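Summary of Year 1 activities. Much of the first year was spent building the evaluation harness for sequence design. The harness presents a backbone, in tokenized form, and records the residue chosen at every position. We chose the following record to illustrate the format because it has been used consistently in internal testing since the harness was completed.
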């Protein structure tokens, strides 16, 4: 059974959508650039490459690099997954102890370009980038620009709910369908990649359910007694009781309430917030039990998604161009859906995936 976007995500916040548009009519309409959180040393046994790709997904590029370097696929690392129908710049690394840099010249073409290569003493880890910068063009726009401008100003000031995007759940919710089947069996897929993908799908649904409840209650961007808080760019968390009244970091979109990424362990919230989260999670008892049995540690994710350096303009009346930066693991879908309905399926690639 297919699932709609409304079932997988939740209610909107700023009164939209205000019309319709097409996303990714061409790869040039969707550009993503990874922003690293470290300085490469220029020496070491790991070769790092900044690759610009077009009409290729991340795993396809990893396979090409592995083949050219004479390595196994598992020896090529990347920080996050990026979509095929887009122009993206992302980092790859490979371990080459005592070896010279391989000759990749036969790989480069109009769709695959090496922007930079540097050595480093460590491999690239998943989620090692700090953020992703997006440049998005919405074409075939049919919307009132005054309403869009007003909404965008609100988003710049207050952010949007940090939903996991519909592509996390697969086309028509196919990943969620598969996750529920495995949860009913009480087992785990033997393939590591499939197992990770379906567990992430289950966690994402439970998180979106909690976030949707707080959007409905208009508390998604407010600190309530019993909340667990976190900073935008840090995985550390702390109880709401430690936040002073009128702390400017909340209004500055530096500190946010969080929701659960379900698993084993004690919840980090208490009181009425704990009761609400348990009630929402208990709406999917098989998925919740499955996540615990998979030995996943419970963690937290910020409920509010801040956008850095949001800008926009209209090259023509039927086109809106947006630029902004999102933290890792967050979805541009959460921004776009507040503005317009997409005339075509996103088809993935709207995420900043850890």
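For this record, the design step produced the sequence shown next.
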């Amino acid at each position: 059974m297919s699932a709609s976007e409304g079932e997988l995500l939740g209610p909107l916040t700023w009164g939209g959508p205000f019309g319709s548009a097409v996303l990714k009519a061409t790869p040039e309409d969707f550009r993503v650039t990874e922003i690293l959180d470290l300085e490469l040393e220029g020496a070491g046994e790991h070769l790092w490459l900044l690759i610009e790709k077009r009409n290729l997904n991340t795993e396809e590029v990893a396979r090409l690099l592995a083949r050219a370097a004479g390595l196994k696929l598992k020896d090529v690392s990347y920080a996050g997954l990026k979509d095929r129908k887009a122009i993206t710049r992302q980092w790859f690394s490979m371990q080459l102890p005592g070896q010279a840099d391989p000759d990749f010249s036969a790989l480069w073409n109009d769709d695959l370009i090496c922007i930079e290569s540097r050595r480093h003493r460590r491999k690239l880890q998943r989620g090692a980038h700090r953020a992703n910068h997006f440049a998005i063009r919405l074409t075939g726009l049919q919307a009132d620009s005054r309403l869009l401008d007003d909404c965008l100003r609100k988003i710049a000031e207050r952010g949007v709910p940090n939903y996991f995007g519909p592509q996390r759940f697969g086309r028509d919710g196919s990943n969620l369908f598969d996750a529920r089947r495995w949860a009913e069996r009480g087992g785990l897929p033997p393939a590591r990649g499939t197992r990770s993908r379906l567990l992430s799908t289950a966690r994402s649904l439970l998180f979106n359910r909690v976030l949707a409840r707080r959007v409905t209650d208009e508390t998604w961007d407010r600190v309530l007694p019993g909340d667990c808080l976190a900073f935008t760019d840090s995985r550390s968390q702390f109880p709401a009781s430690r936040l002073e009244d009128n702390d400017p970091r909340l209004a500055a979109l530096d500190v946010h309430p969080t929701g659960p990424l379900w698993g084993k362990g004690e919840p980090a919230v208490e009181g009425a917030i704990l009761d609400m989260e348990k009630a929402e999670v208990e709406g999917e008892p098989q998925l919740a039990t499955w996540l615990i049995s998979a030995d996943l540690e419970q963690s937290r994710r910020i409920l509010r998604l801040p956008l850095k350096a949001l800008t926009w303009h209209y090259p023509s009346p039927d086109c809106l161009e947006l630029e902004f930066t999102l933290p890792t693991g967050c979805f541009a879908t959460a921004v776009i859906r507040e503005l317009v309905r997409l005339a075509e399926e996103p088809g993935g690639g709207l995420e900043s995936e850890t």
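The two ends are 28 Å apart (CA to CA). Quantitative recovery figures across the full test set are reported in Table 2.
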